Amino acid sequence: MEFKTDIEIAQSCQMKNIHEIAATAGVPERYLETYGNYKAKVDYSLLNDDPTPDGKLILVTAISPTPAGEGKTTTSVGLADGLRKIGKNAILALREPSLGPVFGIKGGAAGGGYAQVVPMEDINLHFTGDFHAIGAANNLLAAMLDNHIQQGNALGIDTKKITWKRCVDMNDRQLRNVVDGLGGRMQGVPREDGFDITVASEVMAVFCMSSSISDLKQRLSSIIVAYTYDDKPVTAGDLKAAGAMTALLKDALKPNLVQTLEGTPAFIHGGPFANIAHGCNSIMATRMAMKLGDYCVTEAGFGADLGAEKFLDIKCRKAGLVPSAVVVVATVRALKHHGGVAKADLNNENLAALEKGLPNLLRHVENVTNVYGLPCVVAINRFPADTEAELELIRTKCKELGVNVALSEVWGKGGDGGVELAEEVVRLCENNHASNFRYAYEDELTIEEKLQAIVTKVYHGKDVVLTPNAKKQAQQLTDLGFASMPICMAKTQYSFSDDQTLLGAPEGFTVTVRNLKVSAGAGFIVALTGDIMTMPGLPKVPAAEKIDVDENGRIIGLF
Fold first, then answer.
1. Which of 61, 73, 74, 128 is catalytic?
2. pLDDT of 223-233, one tens digit each?
3. N or C: which end of the chain has fewer CB within 10 A?
């Protein structure tokens, strides 16, 4: 069989007109704003106008990621297609890709093989311009902040206590630390500054957490950008910036409608990173998919210790959502990598290494079932080199936890390869009459107690340590009345710990929190651990080197 790349498969697909996809999803024409033939935005007024009860929410998460790959987005797309194959009205809700990883190391984020969302090139590049709007709103606020200081600083902002950064949706380490405002008195106030990647901006988080246009404006107003000389917070509302920022975001806030290769409706909207932000698509897109479908399949970024933890402890808490079932995606190859096998040797059967790596999967599964009280299925994203003995070992170990394993072959077979997984998801939903869902911690705990709960209950570490600076920040945030907010951990995605070299299921480790920062608009406190950065860099060989355009304007080399 001829091998095709993801982009070749996507470009050979005969896409349906977006009006047909909207009809399939049950979106009346009056709510549709088309962007060409294959993309559209859906007006958020649909959420208030449609009296239909919400469908079931299915969360797709994964083991701790490895260079071997897990295929979480691919599985999400294939599951939605699989649910439609067995006659269920399923709709997909995913994050938008950032240009950073598209041109960096990770590649595209539209699925893979025969389980993709299309138009793949548009989704991975400019799409409908949402990220540009978010970056513009972020940078408007930065410009208004510096202009306020330049024009007399009536609010008494201490330029050494500015917390707001400019952003750009590109991996650019050169911009992590800059000095700006140089060139004389009329060119601004010289100060140390820096850039975040757009997906780490609080505007992105606000965008994804907002439930309406008025909620968006209120959240934007609450963003803290700096502190005064006497340590009083200064907000976007104080700078009178929220109205103009909302004007830039009002159209972006409408969820984007596209399709899978098999014509399943898919909302793709918002895209915060899960290692440095909360890692979930917008609440509006999730709600719209639940409103229109009997099953909404959504995903959370990276492993369940990051994306799923934030989905459950932040997004579900703030939006009042309760998942009906959780899918944990793994591959035999990735589990062998956790067991110490080098990438070059992952195609060889190795039951000993697999058994050594399995605790990573089992810990994620136990967190879903024991910490959060949710029904769970393990989806093994099957590769050709996987042996029956390896698959049987995974089944046996998961069975001991009372969790079934479903083979997912969606990469090669599309929806047909997701039928087994779809049937198990439906079984879990139908048997889950009384929800036992609970959070990992309660609102009334202190900041330190919430950090302790995440580290000990979800990561299974021994303790959390706050640096003297973080302790001071925790006290300041408590004094300002922010202690009741949930925690958004900024942590390496490769390990349960804050040390990316500790693979598998490490124990006895401590996690060091070096910085605490309130995202008052988003409604959570960000805790930075390890050497995590809010502006990634490009790898030695960026994916951008392989991307090109032929003489007909057709993009090639994009994953």
1. 74
2. 999 999 999 99
3. N
